Amino acid sequence: MNGMSSEPIILSGTDSDLPQAVAQGLSRYTGFREMARGGNGLLRSCFDPITGRTVAVKSLLPDAARDRGERRRLLREARVTAQLQHPNTVPVYDVGDDEKDGVYFVMKRISGENFFEILKRIARGDESTIAAFPLERRLEILADACQALAYAHARGVIHRDVKPENIWVGNFGEVILLDWGVAKVWGHADDNEPIRQSVLKPDSELESQMKTLTGGGQRPGTPLYMSPEQVDGSRSLDERTDIFSAGVCLYELLAIRETFRGANIDETFDNIKNKPPQPPSERSPDRNIPPRADEVVMRALQKRPGDRYQSMRELIAEIRSIE
Question: Rounded to an integer, what distance in angstroms lies between the CA atom of residue 119 and that of residue 97?
Fold first, then answer.
């Protein structure tokens, strides 16, 4: 869920007294405005009079607020996000259980947009975006997001939903990897269903979620970035599944084309599992993609985990070797 933006910071309020009584739960916050909603979640901005800052609050939609499974999932996301304290993750300020809205967590509100919106404008030939985000900058953005993944992997957490929509590019150069809602923690019982075709939305609904980078046809959402082992529904995933998904992101930022998109979900999954993609330089010969980039992306996208890069740090070093 995206939609984070910025508001002017008014420092004149820093000298005011604290409220006499601090309300509990979400009653502490004022000026709620909806930013985005998706699935069972709701993202809103609001003002915290204690700290004097505008923040973002993620909670459940009313129909899901009392569902035990959804509450557990959101609380788990909140705790995973809060414990991954890294420059490329969003800080969590508060986690609570409101009488009206149920489980929620409060985060830093950041300005900017998701990486996919940037890639879409490049695909449309927007000259200002192309100038602001040359290949070198696009590679830097992905490498920064991968730093968050390397940090998470070192702490036993796999993201499992790495995609440009979850990479937030701030107005001041910051890069934040968002949405740890389906993260897997090694050594813990997995509360999430394995992401496989049988638990996805119907094809007609899923394929209408997003347009393609180039604006033609429809774009399957998250399934486009799954690793072969995710498509198979494996429960023994490790960091190499995030490496594959990051490789798909790398392909997109190079070629400005989708890596595995088929005519439908079945064909997309078949491409992911069985068909090696065309090297980016061949897919988009007009993009002047260096040969080294082909080597890096094709290794990251190997079907067998053992044939890929074996750590995110290794992939980061390889991304930064592209010139």
Answer: 38
To the query of whether residue 161 is one of the catalytic residues in this protein, the response is yes
Integer Cα distance of 161 and 84 in angstroms = 16
- The pTM (predicted TM-score) of the whole model is 0.84
Q: Which domains, from first to last, does the chain contain?
A: 11-108 (3.30.200.20), 113-319 (1.10.510.10)
Query: Between 312-319 and 135-154, two packed helices, what is the crossing angle to 10 degrees?
Result: 170
* Cβ pair 257, 214 in contact under 8 A: yes
Strand pairing class (167-169; 210-211): unpaired
What is residue 23's predicted lDDT score, i.e. its pLDDT?
77
Report the C-alpha gap between 176 and 37 in whole angstroms. 19
pLDDT confidence of 18, banded at 50, 70, 90? low
Q: Please enumerate in sequence order all residues whose Cβ is within 8 A of that of 204, keeping only pairs 6 or more positions apart, or say none.
A: none
Joined tokens for residue 2:
């995206």
**What span, in angstroms and rounded, lies between the C-alpha atoms of 236 and 219?**
28
Q: How does pLDDT run across 107-138, given as a tens digit for each residue?
A: 999 889 999 999 999 999 999 999 999 999 99
Q: Which of 15, 17, 98, 161 is catalytic?
A: 161
Reading the block at residue 295, the tokens are 């080597």
- Helix 239-255 to helix 115-123 angle, to the nearest 10 degrees? 30
Q: What angle do CA 302, 137, 316 make, to 5 degrees?
A: 40
Measured distance CA(170)–CA(5) in Å, rounded: 9
Residue type, 147: Q
- Reading the block at residue 147, the tokens are 């730093």
